[in-house]
Amino acid sequence: MNVSTADASIPTSPDARPLVSVIITTRNRPSAVRQAIESALRLDTTTFRLDLVVVDDGSDDDTPEVLGEYPVRVVRTTGLGIPGARNTGLHAAVGDFVNFLDDDDVLLAGAIEAQLAAFRAHPEYASVLGRAQRTDPNLVPFEEPFPDADAPSGWILHELLGYQPQIGTVLTRHEVAAQLGGFNARYAGDDEWDFHLRIAKQFPVGRVPQTVMLFRQRDGAEEEQQWRRTRYVREIFAVNTNHLPLRERLALRPTRWRMRGWNCYAFVRYAQLNRAEREYRRTAKSLYYAFRWSPPHTIALTARWLVRGPR
User: Is the alpha carbon torsion for 2, 6, 12, 15 positive or negative?
Assistant: First the structure.
């Protein structure tokens, strides 16, 4: 493992506008990271200044050349994995606020501005969440943005246990992220969910109704990877609730149910993708994993799929 920095100058200015660090982690996805970077550079920076950091975790293609085309600070690492790369970006960031953007997702105009407005109105918030719009690999939207536009703010640990916010929809105070030690590298999946839950255990969290990001769904099913992630989902849920009194843990049963539904949705969606590719064995395996995870959710989601079609 090594870390090096190809440094475009760190932004310094007497400007009173807050500085926002957008941190993108990438490896060998030059066309996708190009879109992610350009989406950040298109943001309306009337009310804030932008510090754009890209952590390249060992790309061996033309990603370095692509990154050199843009006014970004590049930190080069090797073999850290996503949690470690995010922590490296957090360490390099100089902003008052940080946003972690996956390299295959796209920020929408007004994203950061809407969240900063929420921080101004509620200085007690440690982070502010927006909504995500799922898209296909070509960024064509499908389904409704999530979560609901009227989702609550404040002490919302219980709500965040029921679904996993997409990380690019969240703007966090830098000092809070640093205080928590960033992301837990022991989780090879869902480290961002654990990060959000640890924040929500200690601080109030805000929401804005705006859709702030396009959440690109990858082309192809990943049922095996999703199944491996289920162990982390269970562990993260337990670790972030074991401090609660027994009565509160029992009251979380509906929340646990929603969490199971969220993950079951992923397996059923992979079954849809496999069936579209005539991968019938993988279709069956995806549904098997869904059924193992939650039989009632699988039955309900599969019935809806058969009635409404794959979208």
Answer: negative
